[in-house]
Amino acid sequence: MFHSVLTDTLVRWILRAGAVISALVMLLILIFLLIESWPVLGQITPTRFFTDASWHPLEGAYNLMPMLSGTLLASVGALLLAIPLGIASALFIIFYAPAFFVLPYQRLIELLAGIPSVVFGFWGLTTLVPLINQFHPPGASLLAAILVLTLMILPTITLTTHSALKAVPDEFLHGAAALGLSRWGMIYGVVFPAAHAGIVAGIILAAGRAIGETMAVLMVAGNVVQHPQGLFDPIRTLAANIALEMAYAMDDHRAVLFVSGLLLMILVMMLSAMAGKIGKHKYV
Amino acid sequence: MFDVFAINRWQYYRELLVQLIIYILVLLVSAVFIWLLFDLTRGGLAHLSWEFLTESPRDAGRAGGIGSILVSTLLILLVALFVAVPLAWTTAALLSEFVPTTSQFGMTVRFSLQVLAGVPSIVFGLFGNAFFSIYLGLGFSILSGGLTLACMLLPILVSTAEAGLRAVPQSYRLSAAALGLSRTATLFQLLLPAAAPTLAAGLLLGIGRAVAETAALLFTSGYVDRMPGSLLDSGRALALHIFDLSMNVPGGDTPAYASALVLVVLLLSINIMAMKLAYGLQRKRIMSV
Fold it and tell me: What is the pTM of this model?
């Protein structure tokens, strides 16, 4: 008896140690990002990231705004396209599809959710960019970034919306049908209000993914540091900037890249905190 | 699913219109995705051969194969799993079996992992470069790449394992306690075997995530495409190989297509296996109740 109590205590401590280490990883990441960005954060006022004349890190000009606007424009554009497509896909699977199509379509979406970003980027580079180039050179542009990001977050939005719609209790649907509501009337008046928290949480999750995406955007966006004037102008996002310049960045330049990493992480953390908060309110 | 008893003409047309829009959008999505898959298959299949899978790349990857790349990918993956799996599964066992769901400790660990799950992969790359490559002095190596990936995999491994353990019926734990089994024995003899399919499914999902990763490996495991001699050598992962071929090597498109096809097929089989395990578990559960 005593023996097993001893083992239990021992095992409990081992498990506790594992959990503490797992929890500390997050802290370690934060600490190292802060340490690495300190040479710059401690010296210059943070407003310089927005007011400097340009992004010329070797000459000490650290304006992150063009890249921030590139990131946000690409993400918002992708969301504008992916939200209707994703919600339509989920509605199709649950309410509109003939029984024969449900499974194949669901499998297709799941398959796409598993395709790595570098493959989306590669396809965008070899297919989409030349295609856009025919209409409006140079091809590598904000539009290409938006399209590739749309493909990447579409499965996320479809799958989360799907599970949110599925969680709507059957009685709601039966009640709506008994009241003689039409199919769209039921979806618009009953299903959406009941599922909206889950749908919004999924969209925010997808937004976080779009903001943090690096490789696919890096491959198709053209990577010119500028405020784009239109859909066909090349852009550079914050994440792509890190990937492009880390290889040769030294001293302060390197520190600024860590600052932009920190900024990226804070953006995404805020979004996921929001998603977590909204996701908790189920069945309004 | 439901019969439409259109009350008036306007409503009838509205129904038709909505249905039409949804069908068109779904058709569009399917067409684009089938286009993508078709492109990959057509571009890659011709170049694919046994030699391509086993030879080392020559001439910056334009000729030769991806043999050494596959070995590097596998080594990075093994390092990541060797570190992440024990940590993740002990954490999951503690969270689901040994501390109350609402305890401060459990909430803190869970919150920390939740935040970790949202961190963009390029930020993991920055951290891996600063901590493993430079601070710990591992340099650009398979070891630092694998350790970086291990940090990335933790959240998904913990959450799947915790869900699997929680899905084991409460009656198992009560019966074990009634029979006088210690909690350790209950965990190892009963709960872990019962949750094994979910643990395996979570493991496969983690493997899929790791194999698909590029951004976190850029500045940690490096670009060298030779056969790695040890874990401290730099090794290029398959996803990174595709990136390098398409961006930095003119004329690298054909091998890039073939590598992309290999990667997608690899991930597809991993995902199918994970799904099979998860569904198999559900069926078993229904039958045993």
Answer: 0.89
